[in-house]
Amino acid sequence: MLRSPQTLLRSSRRAFSTSTPTLKSQPYAKSSPKQQIGKGDSKPENGKAGPVPRWKRLIWTGAFAATAFTGSIYGAGLKTQKEWKEEKQKVQELTTDEKVAMLENSKGELWKQKVSLEQKLGEVRRRMEKEKQQQQQGVPK
Predict the structure, then answer these.
(1) Model pLDDT, residue 120
(2) pTM exceeds 0.85, yes or no
(3) Which of 54, 59, 58, 26 minimizes the C-alpha distance to 42?
(4) Where is the sequence biased in composition, kind Polar residues (predicted)?
(5) With 0-12 CB in 10 A as exposed, 13-18 as middle and 19+ as buried, what is 45?
(6) Cα–Cα distance for residue pair 119/125, rounded to 1 Å
(7) What dihedral angle (degrees, nearest 10) is formed by the CA atoms of 97, 103, 104, 110?
(8) Span 66-78, pLDDT tens digits
(9) Cα angle at 130 between 125 and 136, to 5 degrees?
(10) Region of 43 on the Ramachandran plot (φ > 0 left; ψ -120 to 50 alpha; else beta)
(11) Which three-class secondary structure state does DSSP give residue 9?
């Protein structure tokens, strides 16, 4: 008698039981039914994992935070290095006239900074002179 593949599959499915097998108790189990679960135990008697202790959660949280922080700092450093290399490459590729123009531009910016700082320094010196004169005349601040 020939059977079709579908019939063979149906008959083989019937041979397996759908109930879960039961395990006999283990003779060398560490916990007894009378034993109570302590505060730090992570596996209660029913075999399911209990809540993770707080100190473990804090350690894992700190480890993940440190990893993320280190990765972000490292990534930022790599990006900065890449930008420096690109800028250096651009400067090396410039012609002489472009380099001179760039240096003159930098000179102008530095000149503006110098003028600004000299004005601030002059204001501070005037204020100091004024305070010195007031102290000599005996006028309190």
Answers:
(1) 97
(2) no
(3) 54
(4) 1-35
(5) middle
(6) 10
(7) 170
(8) 999 999 999 999 9
(9) 125
(10) beta
(11) helix
User: Measured between alpha carbons, how far is 119 from 99 in angstroms, rounded to an integer?
Assistant: 31
Query: What would the pLDDT profile of 2-45 be if each residue is shown by its tens digit?
Result: 566 666 556 555 555 555 555 555 555 555 555 555 555 455 56
Q: Which amino acid is at 124?
A: V
The three-state secondary structure class of 21 is coil
Tokens of 119: 């004005």
| Nearest 10 degrees: Cα torsion 30, 35, 41, 47 | 70
Which of these, 56, 27, 30, 28, lies nearest to 45 by C-alpha position?
30
